[in-house]
Amino acid sequence: MIPNNSPWIHQLKRSRSVVPLNANATADVAIVGGGIAGIVTAFFTLRDTNKTVILLEADKIAHGATGHNAGQITSYFERPLSELVEEFGLELAIDGQRSIESAWTLIDQIMEEADLRTPLYRFTGYTGLSSFDQVLRHLKDNHYREEGGLQTEAMIVAEEWEERKNIPKAYAHLYGTVAHKDMLNLLETNNTGYVASLAFQKGCMNSALFTEELIGYLVTKYQDRFSLYEGSPVKTVRLKGADGSLGVLAHTVVAGNIVLCTNGFEHFSISNEVGPEIDTAFHHSIAGRIGYMSGYVEPLDNPPTAVSYFPKTNERNGDPTGESYFYLTRRPHEHEGKNLHSLVCAGGPEKVLPNGADYSRTHAYTEDMRDIIDDFLRSNYSKHPGPETKYAFCWHGLMGYTPNGVRRVGFEPCNPVLLYNLGCNGVGILPSVFGGKRISELLQGKEVSPSIFDPHDQTI
Fold first, then answer.
1. Percent of the chain with pLDDT over 70
2. What's the pLDDT tens digit per position in 15-62?
3. pLDDT given at position 300
4. What tens digit of pLDDT does each residue of 78-125 get?
5. What is the CATH number of the domain that holds 309?
6. Rounded Cα gap, residues 280 and 303, in angstroms
7. What is the mean pLDDT of residues 269-290?
């Protein structure tokens, strides 16, 4: 068995002691969750309001999903944009997509204002498509992006691909053609099953390091209004008419607003004293998936990149329909105190967390997951060093999926004392950052437009 060993946690080297909550406390805002969503929510709330803030983390800052993700920054939903248009209408769907992409600017603001040093690599990333249906779906998405005034994703199709002639003429201006070998070079693959490629802005960052650095800034700058307690799991959330309370260890935190920035699987109960029951609806609405990733180091010979691969079939990942995908990032990395190397990370295989099951980061990483990733890399990534690859890191993390695959950001409809910035849905960094900014606007009492991220009444 292989230990769960994340490269992002490995880089932290934190020296701050864990300080649990040791007395009853009060604040204007209590934030539950010390990952990137919770820390960014605290940043914008402290920066843009005069409210006092308490942040409660069950373990350590950035040691949950934020420290066990793929480290890739990308702006897509794990649902086609066309499906979001069908569900919400063009205007709301496009506004939702634009909101996610706006988080690139928010990250830049945070890093500049807090003078963060966490490396952020930004570049054109690629997506490899292998079937006519995949190509058509992304062209349809591009059609809606164009109609809604968003920049389209650049698509190129292999000149030699026979099915190209079946693409509707209405989409002809949304893609170009190149020689198949040139398209495969962009995808860094020798697998001729890929017939088209998308190009759009992507990036990579150690979000755990970003979060740990940002919390240090908040503790110093807002020491008169901000309190941080780690090792402080919340057990009860009680909502009243004007405020709420949290049971934490043997103590109580009373706050005017409570913001859940969690993955939805913490062992707490929600009691709403002035409206319908929320607890059951909340806990049954988040589905868990455990994502598995592996990484190895190599000489620093290639630039940073991020590539997603959609193969035709992927039966070892449990999905013979071709809808599974693998992802790869490559970025500079200091390994074991030595000069910079490249760290190549890949992931894709997932396991569903059954309802009521417990997830633990201490659970071992199983060899079959590593073998699935290794098999895929050897048959798809042209720069893979071969069968003797030694993986320096193998890790897994828990992702929370909302029913419609859209992050939940805003007031709980049954009681606005409670707010959410949760629901990783597989792609979490940009939505978490956007969510933090939107929460701060709601706490300021600003008028915000309706959004696809607005929580709906789960009791209906």
1. 97
2. 889 999 999 999 999 999 999 999 999 999 999 999 999 999 999 999
3. 93
4. 899 999 999 999 999 999 999 999 999 999 999 999 999 999 999 999
5. 3.30.9.10
6. 48
7. 89
Does the pLDDT at position 439 exceed 50?
A: yes
Average pLDDT over residues 326-348: 89
Domain span at residue 366? Answer: 122-201+289-399
Task: Give the model's confidence band at 334: pLDDT under 50 very low, under 70 low, under 90 confident, else very high.
Answer: confident
Is 158 in the same domain as 195? yes
Distance between CA atoms of 324 and 326, rounded to whole angstroms? Answer: 7
Cα atoms found within 13 Å of the Cα of residue 423, Cβ hemisphere only: 26
**327 part of a folded domain:** yes
Would residue 105 count as lying in a domain? no
Task: Give CA–CA dist 136/196, Å, rounded.
Answer: 11
Q: What's the pLDDT tens digit per position in 170-182?
A: 999 999 999 999 9
What's this model's pTM, rounded to 2 decimal places?
0.95
Domain assignment present for 252 = yes
Instruction: Report the candidate in 263, 266, 270, 226 with the shortest Cα–Cα distance to residue 245.
Output: 270
Distance CA 149, CA 105 (A): 18
Cβ-Cβ contacts under 8 Å for 247 (sequence gap 6 or more): 234, 235, 236, 237, 238
- What Å distances lie between residue 30 and 172, 322, 353, 359, CA to CA? 52, 43, 28, 25
45 and 143: one domain?
A: no
Q: What is the rounded radius of gyration, in angstroms, for the C-alpha atoms of the chain?
A: 22
Neighbours of 405 (CB within 10 A): 17
Residues 226 and 131 in one domain: no
Evaluate whether residue 101 is within a structural domain: no
Q: What is the CATH number of the domain that holds 244?
A: 3.50.50.60
Q: Which residues contact 343 (CB under 8 A, 6 or more apart)?
A: 7, 295, 296, 297, 330, 331, 332, 333, 335, 392, 393
Q: What single letter denotes the amino acid at residue 258?
A: I
Cβ atoms of 386 and 378 within 8 Å: the answer is yes
Cα distance between residue 110 and residue 130, in whole Å? 38
Pick from 373, 399, 425: which residue ends a domain? 399
